[in-house]
Amino acid sequence: MKRVIVIFAPTACGKTALAENIFGKGSLSCFKGMGEVVSADSQTVYRGLNIGTAKPSPEEMELLPHHLIDIVSPSVQFGAGDFFDLADAACREILSRNKFPVVVGGSGFYIRNFLMGLTSAPVCSPQVRQFIKDRLAAEGGRVLYEELCAVDPVYAAKINPNDSSRVCRALEVYHTSGMPLSSYKMPENLRPDYEFLVLVLNRAREDLYRRIDLRVDKMFEDGLEQEVAALVKNGCTKDTPAMKAIGYSEFFLDGMTLPQIKERIKLDSRHYAKKQYTYMKGIPGAVIVDADDMKKIESLIMKFCSR
After folding, report:
1. Where does the chain bind ATP (predicted)?
2. Which residues line the annotated binding site?
3. pTM
4. Residues annotated in the binding site for ATP, as ranges?
5. Got the DSSP string for the chain?
6. Binding annotation for substrate
7. 132-161 pLDDT, tens per residue?
């Protein structure tokens, strides 16, 4: 059986540092050098989005190899189906070298689809996809999200209004089938071709919010404003797919000063952190564990790997 370790946690919870402490080349754990990370983050796939996504540095990736980092340009729409295919290929390649794939990230939507498989929603024609894409360019993401709220309020309530990739996908399904995406049944069991250990890291809300605020402060200290300016200089606009991300979209809001942008990013990050857990509810066998309980986490991994 092909074993895959999954570590999910909301933003700023410390999941990347945890993976490095267990599997990295400098680790004191017995799992040192035995795993490689498959990043389950919807924004670190984009080239040029480094500071605002807290992307691992080249030095960190030297200590612990990461997959699915810097693989597409900011103008590309990247969705759950793309992640599913690429993560699956990365896991199989890592396993072929007798190492453990460690899927690490905060995109619960991506991780849930990887664990349980994609929905039975229809594949949309290129014509419908282009129709929605043209509308996005002409009318903007807000108009499309408002339409989604009208035709599929259940799904619309689950996603970030700025997530144009998911908004477009849901509208593609609706315009193809006449049925809302939320009406299609989600798989209820884990995929049978893998054996999963799913760890959901938890922190007290006050502690998590404090860590989020500190992370945002550091992003600005590290040059987030300059990074956004460079992306804009290279052609990115508020409608560029990658610019819909928290930490970037706020710079395109009208009439806001830099301190206001910083506070808005903190607020949006806190709201998103609460939503990130939504897609992880009901995952069979998922274990909720304190993010700082390294002894328990290592014990769970040891038990899983020694089966």
Report:
1. 9-16
2. 9-16
3. 0.85
4. 9-16
5. --EEEEEE--TTS-HHHHHHHHHSTT--STTTTSEEEEE--SSTTBTT--TTTTPPPHHHHHHS-EESSS-B-TTS---HHHHHHHHHHHHHHHHHTT-EEEEEES-HHHHHHHHH----PPPPPHHHHHHHHHHHHHH-HHHHHHHHHHH-HHHHTTS-TT-HHHHHHHHHHHHHHSS-GGGSPPP-S--TTSEEEEEEEE--HHHHHHHHHHHHHHHHHTTHHHHHHHHHHTT--TTSGGGGSTTTGGGGSTT--HHHHHHHHHHHHHHHHHHHTGGGTT-TT-EEEETT-HHHHHHHHHHHHT-
6. 11-16
7. 989 988 898 889 999 999 999 999 998 878
